[in-house]
Design brief:
Elements (H helix, E strand, L loop, with lengths): L1 E8 L3 H7 L3 H10 L2 E11 L2 E10 L5 H7 L5 E9 L4 E8 L6 E12 L2 E12 L5 H27 L3
Antiparallel strand pairs: 1-7, 2-3, 3-4, 4-5, 5-6, 6-7
Helix pairs in contact: 2-4
């Protein structure tokens, strides 16, 4: 299953990028997105930042997903490669369970628009579990997209603060 989320902001890509970096921003977004997130590794190489973040969703998965995975909450390691010069990231989610059967990856890009900028998030989810894989893909995709939607007002508050 592929998904796309587009968020628009009334500021330049450079302003957006500068205001949406750092631990205060990350904590505010995690709280609103209803996830626990802990950075476990960070390294920089020029304009590129490489991070590994342990994430656990506060909201339980649906009963079907719980039964398939034997867990109540979605947990994963998010591997993020950030290119500050291009205002972009590439990310991959490595589930804490069934990592050989669940593939989730994507990218995001902040680009200029006539009204300011937009953040374009593209991703794909594949769950290789017979009979219920497609349903679980949709449920995980909905949960991830809901997190992005819940985080948008927080982002807006940071970028519009000046």
């Amino acid at each position: 299953m592929d998904f796309t989320v587009t968020q628009r902001f009334a500021c330049s890509p450079a302003h957006y990028w500068a205001k949406t970096r750092g631990p205060e921003f990350d904590a505010a977004v995690a709280k609103e997105a209803e996830v626990y997130a802990q950075n476990v590794e960070t390294r920089r190489d020029g304009d590129r930042l490489f991070e590994r973040v342990a994430v656990k969703h506060i909201t339980p998965m649906t009963p079907v997903a719980q039964k398939a995975f034997g867990k109540t909450h979605l947990e994963y390691m998010q591997e993020i490669e950030t290119d500050d010069g291009a205002y972009s990231t590439r990310w991959k989610i490595v589930p804490a369970f069934f990592a050989d059967r669940v593939v989730c990856k994507g990218d995001s890009l902040v680009r200029a628009t006539p009204q300011g900028c937009e953040r374009l998030i593209r991703g794909s989810i594949e769950v290789r579990i017979p009979l219920v894989g497609g349903m679980i893909e949709k449920q995980i995709g909905d949960q991830i997209q809901r997190s992005y939607t819940r985080a948008e007002p927080v982002i807006r508050r940071f970028v519009e603060a000046g």
